[in-house]
Amino acid sequence: MIREGLGELDGLVCDLDGVLYRGDQAIEGAAEAIGRLRAQGIRIVFCTNNSRSTLDQYVTKLSSIGVEAGTEDIITSAVVTAEVLRDRGYSGKTAIVVGGDGIRAALGDVCISVKDDAVVTKSDLVVVGWDPNFHYEAMRRAADAVRSGATFIATNDDSSFPGPDGLWPGAGAILASIQTAGGRTAEVMGKPHAPMLETVARRLDGCRHIAIVGDRPETDLAGAPDRGWKTILVLSGVTRREEVGAIDPPPDLILESIAELAR
Questions:
Q1: 31: Cβ–Cβ under 8 A, 6 or more apart, which residues?
Q2: Strand 230-234 vs strand 160-163: parallel, antiparallel, or unpaired?
Q3: Which of 35, 127, 166, 190 has the highest Cβ tally under 10 A?
Q4: What secondary structure does DSSP assign to 163-200, as a single string?
Q5: Domain range enclosing 161
Q6: What does the alpha-carbon distance between residue 150 and residue 142 come to, in Å, rounded to a whole number?
Q7: 50 φψ region: left (φ > 0), alpha (ψ -120 to 50), beta (else)
Q8: Under a CB-based contact definition with an 8 Å cutoff, are residues 95 and 107 in contact?
Q9: Could you tell me if residue 67 is inside a domain?
Q10: In what order do the strands lie in the sheet with 113-114?
């Protein structure tokens, strides 16, 4: 067990972008760190706000950087969104979606029909995630449906994420345009909001000492202290060393990368 400053850690919530990789580039030593943590008996759940990819695609990506995981080890904001909507009785309803394969597949799994026809501007739901192909027409359709009373959901509201060559605009930037045009605020499912954290807690049921590791304090780490979880900030993603002093509350542990965690 890891003890220094963290207690007897037996559960770890691990972000992906900026923690295990940036774009298609693995963070040096990340895969080896995951292996060492698992060897210490720590249960690891990989948890990402990025809703673009499916669970199978994430399994493939993790494998490509040397991290073995099954779909049961991964939680995405797309999966959480779909499960919440199913539990609220939206199966059989329609949705206008801004997002990629991940959210579309997750909604399909709970029998929510995605309406992509450009002439359709009314639906039961508007669901917004990250979409690198986002364009004005998509914003207009989504905003029209929001103004017409559709239930308005966002997978996450991250303003940016760490790309291979710097920060890229995230789902939050797309969401902001639709909220402005639609005149309403979306309910957000991903970190640090309750739907994602409750899903994580269920996956780590039985763990008594949980920590969450991420590169963005306001999303990856916020909400964890209220649940009694420790927080670990890594500087391999969006947060720079000179920004650490302004973080409130401060993380329990600050590392250059996850590679340092299990050393």
A1: 20, 65, 66, 67
A2: unpaired
A3: 127
A4: ETTEEEE-HHHHHHHHHHHHTS-PEE-STTSHHHHHHH
A5: 78-188
A6: 9
A7: beta
A8: yes
A9: no
A10: 113-114, 94-98, 125-128, 151-154, 187-188
Q: Is residue 62 part of a domain?
A: no
Distance CA(216)–CA(110), nearest Å, equals 30
Query: Which pTM value belongs to this model?
Result: 0.92
Q: Which CATH number characterizes residue 38's domain?
A: 3.40.50.1000
Scored b (16 or more CB within 10 A) or e, 98-110 reads bbbebbbbbbebb
Q: How far is CA 184 from CA 133, 153, 173, 256, in A?
A: 23, 11, 15, 39
The Cα 192–Cα 156 span in angstroms is 9
Bridge partners (DSSP) listed for residue 94: 113
CA-closest candidate to residue 187, choices 223, 158, 219, 155: 155
- pLDDT by residue for the chain (263 residues), tens only, comes to 444 556 689 999 999 999 999 988 999 999 999 999 999 999 999 999 999 999 999 999 999 999 999 999 999 999 999 999 999 999 999 999 999 999 999 999 999 999 999 999 999 999 999 999 999 999 999 999 999 999 999 999 999 887 778 888 999 999 999 999 999 999 999 999 999 999 999 999 999 999 999 999 999 999 999 999 999 999 999 999 999 999 999 999 999 999 999 77
